[in-house]
Amino acid sequence: MDMGSGVGGEVEGEGRCYVVLVSNMKNGIGVALSSRLADMGIATYALHERSYVHTPHMRMVAMEGDVEECISTIAREARGIDALINLPAYAQLGTIEDITVGELVEQFSANLFHTFRLIRAVVPVMRLQGRGMIINVTSLAGIMGFPAITAFSSSMFALEGLSECLRYELMQYGIDVVLVEPGAVRSDRDLLRLPRSGHSDMLKTVHRGLAHLIEHGLSEDDVADTITRIIEEHRRGSRPRMRYIVGDYAFAMLEAKRSMGEDEFEELVRRDVGLDP
């Protein structure tokens, strides 16, 4: 494991800094978080691949081997881990006929299995502390389905279910599990992945519709601001809610799903992604 240069932080209780670990630094939300956490006096570690560009606000940690060993090394150096923030790695596009089983497995490996491994490694550290928080950033696509993002939406639904279960499992140890659920974020354009082979007409149409939604979507700063507010509440000793919806579009779509008939709502979704004129 390769550790980058140190980043200091404000001293918390027990003579140490509040420590945050951020995963999937290719996600623009993580970059937006870095300066905010530094301004808050928080010591922040970021997991990354060697190809990732260094940011001065975080201690960059290259994930090269065993996850448990990596987390243990960070916990020893920082004398604890107070919060783990998991960000989506990428979004596989494609209908059921566009993507392969292998691409579906890769999507789940990146967005669910890797997250599961990190959480499983962090929980013993937080349990010994008697306090901690796990923030899983999912998506509006983890609450409702959209066409031609089948693999990504499925991985987000799965992470939502995992998070709900963990909320009950871990609260007895003083560990809070939180879901942050944004609508389309402009930095998502860097996370979209087209299938390696099939490109159906529906995918081509939806890809254009998604690109439009992303172009007019949230900034990564909007999501980063929500996460920093949750962390500040946690530092003050307040227990965070289970869910934080981010963005007017996400709120509007959830309200529409609650208030509209099923056929009417399906037409709305089709129109939003460009399938209906």
Describe the protein.
The chain is of the alpha/beta class and 277 residues long. It has a single domain, classed as 3-Layer(aba) Sandwich (Rossmann fold), CATH 3.40.50.720. It contains 8 helices and 10 strands. The strands form 2 sheets. The chain has an 8-stranded mixed beta sheet with strand order 1-4-3-2-5-7-8-10, with helices on both faces. It has a two-stranded parallel ribbon with strand order 6-9. Helix 3 runs parallel beside helix 4. It is globular. The N and C termini lie far apart (52 Å).
What percentage of amino acids are in beta strands? 15-25%
Percent helix among the residues? 40-55%
Superfamily (CATH H level) name? NAD(P)-binding Rossmann-like Domain
Strand order of the largest sheet: 1-4-3-2-5-7-8-10
Features:
277 residues, alpha/beta, Rossmann fold, 8-stranded mixed β-sheet
Brief rundown of the structure:
The protein is of the alpha/beta class and 277 residues long. It has helices at residues 28-39, 67-78, 101-129, 150-170, 201-215, 220-235, 248-259, 262-272, and strands spanning 2-3, 19-22, 43-48, 59-62, 83-86, 91-92, 132-137, 175-182, 192-193, 243-246.
Please give the structural blueprint.
Layout: E1 2-3, E2 19-22, H1 28-39, E3 43-48, E4 59-62, H2 67-78, E5 83-86, E6 91-92, H3 101-129, E7 132-137, H4 150-170, E8 175-182, E9 192-193, H5 201-215, H6 220-235, E10 243-246, H7 248-259, H8 262-272
Parallel strand pairs: 2-3, 2-5, 3-4, 5-7, 6-9, 7-8, 8-10
Antiparallel strand pairs: 1-4
Helix pairs in contact: 1-6, 2-3, 3-4
